[in-house]
Amino acid sequence: VVFLSGLREKAVVSKSTTSCAPFPVFGPEDSQYLADSLGQPLIKGLTEVASKRPPDPIKYLANYLYTYEDDPSNQINGQPKVLEQTFTVGEDRQLTAPPPLPVEAMVREEGADHEEDGEEAQVRRTPEPLPTAFKPTQRDEFGQMILHFAMARTHGRNAVFQLLQEVDCNIALRDELYRTPRDVAVQVNITENVEAIDKYVVSLAAIGELDKLRELLVEGYDHILDARDENSTVTEVANERNQTAILALLDSINSFEDKRERLHRAIRLASDSQVQEMLRSNPGLALAKNQYSRCSLHIAVLNQHDSIVQHIAQKYPQTLVVGDNLMRTALHYAMGVERVETLSKILIQAGAT
């Protein structure tokens, strides 16, 4: 169901429409089991079917899955390969958070200038999971973590701020409706919870948590500069504490967000040269997410621009392991668009699993 679901860039799926779907909706445990046991074989099998176009695709896929473990290319030391990453909505966010590096150098550009193509192209090694400065957190099948639920309720004095410090998770993570915990608090009109989150952001700046603020920015959190602690803004607090690195980051936020939007617009317009130039000048933009939790590779796949997908996937391979608000990678997106055959082949050859 996950692999074949149609994707639309600005679609919002509600629980009510999910209940009416003609396919079964699996719970978190069932989804994790299916992803762990069938995720990689199904992706490879569907890619093979799309490539070969056999007269009986069901029988072809069945035979492929039946002989999957007998194929030497799917084994390591005689044992079936295990997915390095599996798509489960409740797994640790550690797999997809941006690394604690300078914003403009978060993504390493591959040195090879050649573009791999054709049947003989070599499949690259899957990129390592991206590190995170925050603690991992569990999320349910709707992308919600404990903070989403906590922000929808009133609490005692300083209770929310203490909770934020204790769980120490990425407050930029969005649920299936693309809401951060702060957005939930705004939606239910609980001002004290909004203020507590802003106070937490200010505290990160005050104690010099540069890596965490960078992650919030790259994850698409759009309320860093709005944060206040009583009568002081986040910039004023950083200035009072002489946090020069934090001040430099805060000063760069508007410019970074503008470049991210221009990059995503260039991808949608299929402007190859502009995309390549922007990423060459600012490689950190490759990982930057928009308000729908999609990075440059997600958007390139959704718009089915083969050359841009190939460029990003091969030169910025960390984007292959970036998940959206429901932990879906670019390869999951490829399974829901018309050009699934071409796009999935490009991604798998670049190292996607």
Automatic annotation (TrEMBL):
Region (Disordered): 110-136
Keyword Transferase: no
Annotated ANK repeat ranges: 326-353
Alphabetic keyword roster: ANK repeat
SUPFAM superfamilies in alphabetical order: Ankyrin repeat (SSF48403)
Naturally occurring in which organism (per UniProt): Homalodisca liturata
UniProt cross-references to Pfam families, sorted A to Z: Dpy-30
Protein name: Uncharacterized protein
